[in-house]
Amino acid sequence: MSYSFQDALAGLAALVGDRHLIASGPDQDPYVVDWRGRYHGRAVAVVKPGGLMNPGKSFGAGAP
After folding, report:
1. Which residue, 3, 20, 23, 46, has fewest beta-carbon neighbours within 10 Å?
2. DSSP code per residue over 2-43
3. Looking at residue 60, what is its pLDDT?
4. Residue 34: C-alpha distances to residues 1, 2, 23, 38, 53 (Å)
C-alpha cells in the first residue's frame, strides 16, 4: 500500500480537524519565524492539538 503526501495531510486533518492543521501559507509564520524576524524556517505542515488526546494520535499517525 502506498500513501501520498496529500493522504498524510488528509489523515492528520481527520485526526485533529482542519482548524488545527496549517498546511502552508502565511498562517505558518508564527511557527516558523523567530520573534525578531531574523530566522525563517520551513515546515510542510503545522499540526496543533485539538485536545488532550490529539498529540498522541498525531504522533502515532506518522508511524508506519
Report:
1. 3
2. ---HHHHHHHHHHHH-GGGEE-SSGGGHHHHB-TTS--B---
3. 55
4. 39, 36, 19, 6, 28
